Amino acid sequence: MADRDLATAKQKGLVFCVSGPSGTGKGTVIHELMQIKPDIAHSVSATTRSPRAGEQDGVDYYFVSRQAFESMLDQNMILEHDVYCGNYYGTPRARLDELVSQGIDVVMDITVPGSLAVMANYPEAVTLFLLPPSFGELERRLKKRGTEDEETVRRRLDKARDEIAKTKLFTYAVINDDVKKAAAKILAIIEAEHCRYDRQTGLEDKIMAR
After folding, report:
1. Residue 169 and residue 74: Cα distance in Å, rounded?
2. What pTM value is reported for the model?
3. To bridge 125 with a disulfide, which of 15, 18, 66, 145 should be the other Cys (CB 3.0-4.6 Å)?
4. Beta bridge partners of 43
């Protein structure tokens, strides 16, 4: 106990929702964050889209059929979900509840409506909007991936315009112009959220009782 923070020893885990347009590098930034803070958990979303090259089932996403996803919805097994470019994306409920109850922080890579839905279910959820350094850079990143045709890229860019307008609904905004710097900013946000007094009620009594 001596080497642990008295204030956080019995805290529930916090949920950090990272959202932003496709191509802003959410997955890459979260991977970097987990390299520097390995005790944080990554909530793996379920999706009906096909895996991209190098993606692993159960690591990047749970890749499921549309029928299986809709069955999970019917059974209330999905915390939040969205349809993005014709595919379902959603957060399995059970694993998230388990991690939070164990005092483990969870970072989520989810859509903009997904973050807002999580806020409704977890009022203490912390929402972060990841932005590209410019819209032109976002377009360049999407085209550089080379995984989608021009029409799909155009649809993603149209969607991005609408999503960026919702930045003001989020608690924090982080520009991803450098992956390491963006991850470091998110880490600072995590540490600051744990230091909020309303998450450490009674801290002074614990200190005085020692």
Report:
1. 29
2. 0.79
3. 15
4. 108
Q: Is the torsion defined by CA of 200, 93, 36, 9 positive or negative?
A: positive
Of 129, 123, 87, the C-alpha closest to 108 is 129
- Extract the tokens encoding 56: 């692993």
Cα–Cα distance for residue pair 30/59, rounded to 1 Å:
13
Instruction: Identify the residue whose tokens are 């916090």.
Output: 14
Q: Which one, of 193, 188, 199, 160, lies nearest residue 26 by Cα?
A: 160
Rounded-to-integer distance, Cα 152 and Cα 154, Å: 5
Angle between helices 26-36 and 179-195 (to 10 degrees): 60
Q: How far apart are CA 97 and CA 35, in angstroms?
A: 23
Yes or no: say if 109 and 26 are a contact pair by the CB < 8 Å rule: yes
